[in-house]
């Protein structure tokens, strides 16, 4: 246990004072492109750089099946197990990619580039940037990458509370907007830019994170005042 904790602390210290090589920046850029969903609708070879394309899809059990391998109408523990089994590939792929990116110095690059933005904006460290970008496309990806940060002691309980508020509100913003939300586009495409509603959702996510940030600050002050008495 002591060796594991020492390894986590040394990893955190290394990320706080990053020495970033060129490959680290390349890894970060590729990671952002993969998790952002930019290439999801491409019809050429660039589509292989999209996370959902890499994740793939299940085959149909029979010709007219629409519910995937889980079927429909399931309940209880068995349905829960099948749901967990369905989520497993997304989590495994996300964690595998993040380990490759970390090995190439991508987290160090994220800390150096994104910390000056994310720290004042929401009070979270720069290395949460990959989880943030991933969560915009898939809630499972965001959860898996955030869990990895927690397991490696790279995010405090306070930062986790703030970041969770960002993750929960309008989760999978880009993925949901360009799937279910796209049906609403004909009603407003002549009145405002197509991307504007999605940007509003992201701004609201940031506002929600800062509301949680304020709540935590006031809660800490209340506890300190109570202990001081």
Task: Provide a descriptive summary of the structure in words.
The protein is mostly helical. It has a domain at 119-228. The chain is 68% helix and 0% strand. It has 11 helices and no strands. The longest helix is centred in the C-terminal third of the chain and has 33 residues, at 196-228. The model has no long low-confidence stretch (mean pLDDT 79). InterPro entries: Gate_dom (IPR011642).
Strand percent estimate: under 5%
Overall geometry comes to globular
Oligomer: single chain
Give the count of helical stretches.
11
Instruction: State the order of secondary-structure elements, H for helix, E for strand.
Output: HHHHHHHHHHH
SS elements, strand count: 0
Rg, Cα atoms, Å: 20 Å
Give the uncertain stretches in residue-range form: none
> Helix/strand/pairing class, anyone?
mainly alpha
What is the residue-mean pLDDT, rounded to a whole number?
A: 79
Separation of the first and last Cα atoms: 37 Å
- Largest sheet, if any? none
DSSP helix fraction: 55-70%
Transmembrane segments: 22-42, 160-188, 194-216
Protein name: Nucleoside transporter/FeoB GTPase Gate domain-containing protein
Keywords: Membrane, Transmembrane, Transmembrane helix
Pfam families: Gate (PF07670)
Brief description of this entry?
The chain has 229 residues and is mainly α.
Topology:
Blueprint: H1 2-16, H2 22-36, H3 51-55, H4 76-103, H5 106-122, H6 129-137, H7 139-151, H8 157-168, H9 173-177, H10 185-188, H11 196-228
Organism: Oxobacter pfennigii
Keywords: Membrane, Transmembrane, Transmembrane helix
Transmembrane segments: 22-42, 160-188, 194-216
């Amino acid at each position: 246990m002591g060796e594991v904790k020492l390894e986590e602390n040394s990893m955190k210290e290394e990320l706080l004072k990053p020495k970033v090589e060129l490959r680290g920046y390349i890894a970060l850029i590729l990671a952002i492109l993969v998790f952002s969903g930019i290439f999801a609708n491409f019809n050429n070879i660039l589509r292989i750089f999209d996370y959902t394309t890499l994740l793939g899809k299940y085959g149909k059990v029979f010709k007219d099946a629409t519910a995937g391998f889980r079927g429909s109408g399931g309940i209880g523990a068995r349905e829960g197990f099948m749901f967990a089994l369905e989520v497993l590939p997304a989590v495994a792929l996300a964690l595998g990619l993040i380990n490759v990116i970390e090995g190439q110095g991508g987290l160090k690059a994220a800390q150096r580039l994104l910390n000056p933005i994310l720290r004042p904006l929401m009070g979270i460290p720069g290395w949460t940037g990959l989880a943030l970008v991933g969560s915009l496309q898939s809630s499972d990806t965001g959860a898996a990458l955030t869990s990895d940060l927690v397991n490696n002691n790279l995010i405090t309980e306070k930062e986790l509370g703030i970041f969770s508020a960002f993750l929960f509100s309008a989760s999978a913003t880009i993925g949901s907007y360009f799937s279910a939300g796209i049906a609403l586009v004909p009603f407003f495409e002549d009145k405002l830019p197509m991307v504007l509603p999605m940007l509003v959702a992201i701004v609201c996510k940031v506002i929600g994170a800062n509301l949680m940030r304020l709540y935590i600050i006031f809660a800490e002050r209340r506890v300190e005042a109570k202990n001081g008495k």
